[in-house]
Design goal:
Shape: globular
Structural class: mainly alpha
Number of strands: 2
Largest sheet: 2 strands, antiparallel
Strand content: under 5%
Number of helices: 11
Length: 334
């Protein structure tokens, strides 16, 4: 298989892309430790969002007792907080990378500019369209799930976890939520690529062939319900309110960071904060590959993994041809 990097991109990271060493044989303990370290330390999205969840809970979250009854004031407070968080993250990244071009084209995957016009977009241009669906639908559904979960915790319908009673599990749950995300995201993403759901729901997200920070949570409301529904696992798996905040903030805010269009944030010419993955960037250009993430390599197990090489690209193109011959012509090709 040809391992030459793909052409047609402004930036391609080292290929072939590596998946989690936890799913390789024979076991590679040092690589496993390195994978966890690089995923969580020292400055990473995950660790930053754990801090955001704690600050949200202690400074900007209404007391749990207030959540026993639905009321406009505490729900509005949560909605406003989420609106500010999403605007700060997606808006801040857009200003940094695209408006002020602080990093130029360095570490940017796709050399093309974001679309300023296009009939496929609800509001004419890509950015305004993405902002509309992110803020009007995405933040609303995100907040609705938070409201539901806090109401359930306050009334004893969902099991509560405390640090005092289960300190090890309290910490471990932060590590496990991203793994659950990897498991859950692959399967709901494959579901959304079923022709009917793709045409009527998921195609809205795939208007973005070249993605920017506002693209990540730009989805149809039905997709928001499915995507953010991951948090419903806590009706069975005990969690502290901080875990609920982290779970939904991780899903919503990393949707913006992973769609930044850049591999990372450069500080003094070094990548100090990993952001978008080439793995998912290719999904937006080639569609029929890389449905999941790299933590649980479902794509590798089921033949839809594109590792960024010319050899893998030829295999994926053959896969797309077979899908087209089978009559599945709902997805655009590029």
């Amino acid at each position: 298989m040809d391992k030459t990097p793909l052409k047609g991109w402004n930036h391609v990271p080292p290929v072939p892309i590596k998946v989690s060493p936890f799913f390789m044989w024979p076991p590679r303990p040092l690589e496993m430790v390195g994978w966890i370290w690089n995923s969580w330390f020292l400055i990473t999205e995950k660790l930053i969002l754990v801090a955001v969840a704690f600050m949200s809970f202690y400074w900007f979250q209404p007391p749990l007792a207030e959540s026993r009854e639905f009321a406009f004031d505490w729900i509005a407070q949560m909605y406003l907080r989420n609106l500010v968080l999403m605007t700060a993250v997606a808006g801040g990244l857009h200003l940094y990378f695209y408006t002020f071009t602080k990093q130029g084209q360095r570490l940017r995957y796709d050399p093309r500019p974001l679309m300023k016009a296009g009939r496929q977009f609800t509001l004419g241009g890509q950015i305004w369209d993405n902002m509309f669906w992110t803020l009007a639908s995405g933040v609303t559904v995100w907040t609705a799930y938070e409201v539901l979960m806090f109401w359930a915790l306050a009334n004893g319908y969902a099991p509560m976890l405390t640090f005092a009673a289960h300190p090890v599990w309290f910490v471990a749950l932060f590590l496990l939520i991203p793994i659950w995300e990897s498991f859950y995201f692959y399967w709901i993403h494959r579901l959304l690529h079923v022709p009917f759901l793709y045409k009527h729901v998921h195609a809205l997200h795939h208007r973005n062939i070249n993605v920017g920070p506002w693209s990540g949570l730009s989805m149809h409301p039905v997709e928001h319900l499915i995507f953010l529904g991951s948090v419903l696992i806590h009706w069975g798996v005990a969690a502290h309110p901080i875990h609920i905040l982290f779970h939904l903030q991780y899903y919503a805010l990393t949707a913006a960071t992973t769609h930044t269009g850049f591999e990372g944030l450069l500080v003094k010419d070094k990548n100090r904060l990993a952001l978008g993955t080439f793995h998912h960037q290719m999904h937006h250009r080639y569609f029929e590959c890389n449905y999941g993430s790299l933590e649980i390599p479902w794509d590798k197990f089921f033949g839809s993994f594109h590792d960024g090489t010319i050899g893998a690209d030829a295999r994926i193109r053959e896969r797309r041809k077979r899908l087209m011959k089978s009559g599945d012509q709902t997805r655009p090709l590029c």
